[in-house]
Design goal:
heterodimer; A: 3% strand; flat; B: 436 residues; D-Maltodextrin-Binding Protein, domain 2; two-stranded antiparallel sheet
């Protein structure tokens, strides 16, 4: 008995050491860094100075507002869309299922930068989308999508949704395929409509997966960077800037202030932790 | 069959992964051994973006240097400008000097930022044998921090008003009408051009601050003062610049674009009649071979206030040597004798890469006096170098990027008609918040 638990510990020892070294140690170091401020290598300890600066920083507030806006609008739409598509693809008699699944999942394997640049050129002032709208006589003058604060955000949300819906759909599809079809038969016999079945059978049984994808998507959207930088670069006038982009700017674009950048990144950590906790409370199993 | 196929796939993937790992190892091993060998062999490593311009320049310099110093070897590592800045910042912040090169290309607005953030990183050229009086003063000013000169000036971005002589002629304007004009006159001409030919006069990109930079420097001002304070309030040049920005946007003579490729595409496709940009834009303008002979260059329009001149600058970079590099003296000597003082280098740089340097003795050479067929047989380089002597020298300070971003934040409000004084006060406040 003792020998087998010793072997067990030995197995765990190496990965734990690696996690400590590469995950925990940097976390602690960056937490210490968040109490320093300065330029480049010339920095000094400022205690809670960075945190007080954070609370009154208008650019951080704008970035926070944008990021939370993306979160509130994009994640529910994407998850719901993923659920519906998964449900449609779960239909037993659907032809070409393999093709649809591959086609919807394909965006997830594209490079973030490539598809962002493509979206940028599609929504350019003389891009395909404007040409399409002009030809269909829906508009008279091309719309400058990426130069309007509201439409630029819409384009970003569109891009993210296009890319990640397939990813979540696959999770839901595999969860739905674990549901016994006899439950649906029983429900049909009892007279439940398809819609009722969807909301009362499918969704509750897929709930743990929905919770999982919600947390993962929240985490991902809060750290949004690639799309924003490549499509609008935070513009017009910081209206699409996200917190991650602000951290990047603080480190590489402006006179580098790594301490303050670490502080902003801890702001993300705190937000993610709070949201994850809330989501688990709301959607988790009551133990 | 299935099992054989999957085994084959797995083996292929693993083999390619291992091969990749393997080749990485041999590469680093080669680098390490070549570095040791380099000490004896006189090798210098440089980082630069744009291999057909900056990289080419270094290679020309290396060829010239090798003539006097056989056995000299240069390695130019090409990477995108933002990648280079990231790597430099990361390496310097981490205090790791192994991955760093001997020579590095630095964009002028970043100079003060690097020198002040990473003290002791860059070699000083103040007491070297480079004669800095032979270079355009405003370039040397950008390299000087606390009376020490940190690098060698490289290309200049002296600006000009590139225009389509055929479109302007159709609207009734000749070359004389565009000589030494003010921006208000430019706008008036633009309106007539739009009316008579249907073409836009220029492009406008609210996310890009190139245009405001050009105007500020032409008035001898910048986003920040020499002692790094925001220069938005009580600054007549700034007020006038933004007034003109709004005027151009309102006049309808500027085509909105959202990015670099749209910007270049606009003049290549013939949608716009003029481009106000640095001399390095020549390469992109000449990409439209079908527009040969239809372009010409006039002096940059000026601000209609005291101190406004018909000359400005956009961009430009300099070569720095890292103080901690093993081959520091060699790198400094290499740069100093070629880019730092060889007229032959600058002539070759112009003819082979289309690059205009800031080395004054080269300006009178034959290469710089040549006429260009594409630009209607105008001696464009002679004109540009003439204007480069008039560009006001300014201090780019440390916080240029923060100031530009603060301006960009408020720009949409200004374009929508907000009170200019209030907007400027907002920008100033935002900037001061950022710089702590």
């Amino acid at each position: 008995m003792k020998k087998s638990s010793l072997i067990g510990w030995q197995f765990i020892l190496l990965p734990s050491a690696l996690i400590m070294l590469f995950s925990f140690y940097p976390m602690i170091q960056s937490f210490i860094l968040s109490f320093e401020s300065g330029k480049g290598n010339v920095s000094e300890f400022v205690g809670l100075g960075n945190y007080t600066r954070l609370l009154s920083d208008p650019i951080f507030r704008q970035a926070l507002f944008n990021t939370i806006l993306y979160l509130i609008i994009q994640v529910p739409i994407m998850l719901f869309l993923g659920l519906i598509i998964a449900h449609l693809l779960n239909a037993p008699k659907l032809k070409f299922k393999g093709f649809y699944r591959t086609a919807i999942f394909l965006p997830c394997v594209t490079s973030l930068v490539s598809y962002s640049i493509l979206f940028k050129s599609i929504f350019a002032v003389d891009g395909i989308f404007n040409k399409l709208l002009l030809n269909m006589h829906i508009i008279n003058e091309p719309i400058a999508w990426l130069m309007d604060p509201v439409w630029a955000r819409v384009v970003i949300i569109l891009a993210i949704t296009w890319r990640w819906t397939g990813y979540n759909m696959i999770f839901y599809l595999s969860a739905m395929q674990n549901i016994d079809p006899s439950i649906y038969e029983a429900a049909s016999i009892d007279g439940a409509s398809k819609l009722r079945q969807f909301f009362s059978i499918t969704i509750p049984m897929v709930k743990p997966i929905i919770l999982f994808t919600a947390i993962i998507s929240t985490n991902g959207t809060l750290q949004l960077f690639d799309e924003v930088v490549n499509i609008t670069n935070g513009g017009p006038g910081n209206s699409t800037m996200t917190i991650s982009q602000y951290i990047y700017n603080l480190s590489f674009v402006y006179t580098p202030n790594f301490g303050y950048a670490a502080t902003v990144s801890y702001a993300i950590v705190i937000i993610v932790a709070i949201l994850a906790f809330l989501q688990m409370k709301v959607g988790g199993d009551k133990k | 069959m299935k099992k054989a196929l999957s085994t084959l796939l797995v083996t292929t993937v693993m083999a390619s992964a291992l091969a990749a790992c393997g080749s990485n190892n041999t590469n680093t091993a080669n680098d390490a051994s070549s570095n040791e060998a380099a000490e004896g062999k006189q090798k210098v490593v440089a980082w630069a973006w744009d291999p057909s311009f900056n990289g080419k320049a270094l290679n020309i310099a290396a060829e010239l240097y090798e003539q006097e110093h056989p056995g000299f070897e240069l390695e130019v590592v090409d990477m995108a400008k933002t990648d280079l800045e990231q790597r430099l910042n990361t390496n310097l912040a981490a205090g790791v000097s192994e991955g760093l090169p001997d020579i590095i290309l630095v964009n002028d607005p970043n100079i003060q930022k690097y020198v002040n953030s990473y003290p002791g990183t860059f070699a000083e050229f103040t007491n070297s044998n480079v004669d800095f009086s032979q270079f355009s003063q405003y370039k040397v000013d950008a390299l000087t921090v606390d009376e020490k000169i940190y690098g060698i000036p490289f290309d200049i971005g002296v600006t000009g008003l590139f225009y389509r002589s055929d479109i302007l002629a159709e609207a009734g304007y000749s070359a004389e009408d565009l000589e030494n004009i003010t921006w208000d006159e430019y706008i008036e001409i633009g309106k007539v051009v739009k009316e008579k030919t249907g073409k836009y006069m220029s492009t406008i990109n609210p996310n890009d601050e190139a245009w405001t930079s050009i105007l500020l420097q032409s008035g001898g001002s910048w986003y920040i003062t020499p002692d790094n304070k925001g220069n938005f309030v009580n600054n007549p040049v700034m007020t006038e610049t933004l007034r003109l920005y709004k005027a151009i946007s309102d006049s309808g003579i500027a085509k909105p674009v959202t990015g670099w490729s749209e910007f270049v595409g606009s003049f290549n496709a013939g949608d716009v009649a003029t481009v106000v940009s640095g001399v390095w834009q020549i390469a992109s303008i000449m990409d439209a071979a079908d527009q040969k002979g239809q372009w010409a260059v006039a002096p940059t329009p000026r601000l209609n206030i005291e101190g406004g001149v018909n000359a400005s600058n956009e961009g430009g970079s300099s070569w720095f040597v890292l103080d901690g590099s093993a081959n520091k003296e060699l790198a400094m000597d290499f740069l100093g004798s070629t880019i730092g003082g060889s007229s032959e280098f600058y002539e070759r740089f112009l003819t082979e890469a289309g690059g205009v340097g800031s080395y004054i003795p080269a300006f009178s050479s034959e290469a710089y006096q040549q006429t260009s067929e594409f630009f209607g047989n105008q001696a464009i380089y002679a004109d540009f170098t003439e204007w480069s002597t008039q560009v006001p020298g300014i201090s780019l300070g440390m916080y240029t990027q923060e100031a530009k971003d603060a301006l960009k934040n408020e720009l949409p409000n200004i374009l929508n008609g907000a009170d200019l004084e209030k907007s400027l006060a907002n920008i100033q406040k935002l900037f001061e918040q950022q710089v702590q």
